[in-house]
Design brief:
Blueprint lengths: L6 H5 L2 E4 L2 E5 H8 L3 H10 L9 E3 L2 H10 L14 E3 L1 H10 L3 H57 L29
Antiparallel strand pairs: 1-2, 2-4, 3-4
Length: 186
């Protein structure tokens, strides 16, 4: 079975809206090789298969934010309808509504991408946890180093006692003879 669409293409069409990974109806229609209208008609005929956690319409503000952040979605800017978005489960349900050979192959690819993204998030959480643990261990070990450095800096800032001796008589300028006063000679 040849890949109809690359995983990178699919991943580029997944958006984070309401803290959920979703795909737009127009993007899915493009991937499935149907019009957005045909996709939405199929969904409307089977609405009971798409509860709110599978599919929902974007609010006006969400649509505007999406258009603002994604240059490729400029086509939605002047659309009067609010797009539907599908969660991973909604995309899986689309395979029972759209029965073309292409839709089945694309759906399999989309499910693989969602699975890969979920794995990456889990790996990322584990990596973040390991980094935090390492940071804590390192902080404890370096705390001793920082305390020692603070002590050394404090010692360097105290005035140092001068070493050597001090000459108390006035020094004559170099090369000049010192005049000796002779009292009592005559």
């Amino acid at each position: 079975m040849s890949n109809v669409v690359t995983m990178e293409t699919i991943a580029g069409k997944i958006h984070l809206i309401r803290e959920i990974k979703v795909m737009l109806d127009a993007d899915l229609a493009e991937l499935y090789g149907v019009t957005t209208k045909a996709l939405n008609q199929a969904v409307t005929r089977n609405e009971q298969r798409f509860p709110p956690d599978f599919m929902f319409r974007l609010a006006k503000e969400e649509k505007q934010e999406l258009v603002t952040n994604c240059d490729r979605l400029d086509r939605l800017k002047h659309s009067s309808t609010l797009p539907r978005v599908f969660t991973e489960q909604g995309v899986a349900m689309l395979s029972s509504v759209l029965r073309s050979e292409r839709a089945i192959r694309v759906n399999i690819q989309i499910m693989r991408v969602f699975t890969r993204l979920r794995r990456m998030v889990i790996d990322n959480k584990e990596l973040r946890k390991e980094v935090e643990e390492l940071k804590q261990i390192t902080d404890e070990r370096f705390q001793i180093v920082f305390e020692t450095l603070d002590q050394l800096l404090h010692v360097e800032n105290t005035p140092k006692k001068k070493i050597g001796f001090i000459v108390k008589e006035k020094l004559s300028k170099y090369g000049e003879k010192k005049q000796v006063s002779r009292k009592g000679t005559g």
